[in-house]
Amino acid sequence: MRTLVTGITGFIGSNLARKLLEDEHEVTGLIQPVISRDFRSIEGIKQHVKILYCDIKDYSSVRDSLRRANPDAVFHLASLSPVRLSFEHPLEVQKTNVLGTVNIAEAVRDLYGSENTRLIAASTAEVYGIQPAGTPFTEDLRLEPSSPYAVSKAHLDMYLRMLNQVYGSNVVVMRNSNTFGRKHDAGFFTEYLITEMLSGNDIYIGAPDSIRDYMYVDDHVQGYMRAMQTDEAKGQVFNVGGEVGYTNREWAIKIAGLLNFPLNKLHLGEYPPGYPKRPITSDQPYLVLDASKAKRVLGWKQTVPLEEGLIRTINFWKK
Description:
Elements: E1 2-6, H1 11-22, E2 26-31, E3 50-53, H2 59-69, E4 73-76, H3 83-88, H4 90-112, E5 118-122, H5 148-167, E6 171-176, E7 178-180, H6 189-198, E8 203-205, E9 211-212, E10 214-216, H7 217-229, E11 237-240, E12 246-247, H8 248-259, E13 266-268, E14 286-287, H9 292-298, H10 306-318
Parallel strand pairs: 1-2, 1-4, 2-3, 4-5, 5-6, 6-11, 7-10, 8-13, 9-14
Antiparallel strand pairs: 9-12
Helix pairs in contact: 1-7, 2-4, 4-5, 6-8, 6-10
């Protein structure tokens, strides 16, 4: 198939591109035109990928890029994603994530019609926000986003579902949980814990009792592959995640055990010095996904045990 990946140099986009090439699909990647661009994430595959420079906030740029790519499937992963930074840059996050999604979706519909090219888009577990129940979240829950980033993704989520309901558009929305296995960004929780512990530094855990589920990047990518391959996925929303919740404290202790890191260097209830502040009232105490629908409809399942995924990530950062 001819595939298009927005945000191809990002964490998930680059790993998805590798999997698509491995399965012998053609891959075109959209990249935001900037003065300097870090291509480390697609080292080894860049020569096999067609790169198009495109500002997803500009409809004409998006439409022209999509026309040139002529894809059978579009994976829309490009976004501004750090949750905490979205509180400091809410307008920029809305412009990129909301307007960018509308441009992608409408260009696909305009060029290829509602029934043809499949658009698979990255929503997030964050759209559920703060829910009253302490049991894994199902797709039918009302969305209650509690950050500017989550609001932008809830808009994506609802807009694409509207297109399916009104026009029969061939869209699939993926709500994914916390994913680890990054190789070029230590700013997210799991990679922060691993890299700081490897360096022997003190660890700061601002919300030690918050509960999250986790999955390794390979399983995240497999969710997108199954969404592309499954006819019945059209118009559907799928949770893809680990289903088992860990407190931030438990997750840190788990990683510390793998690294023989002293627990007395964990500082609970404190954020790292200079860490972007997030309003306490916005922090979800519980965010765990029920992935039973993805298992049933997509045939997806978590194949990489968490400890194995952590060891893979640790071994990379040790280098």
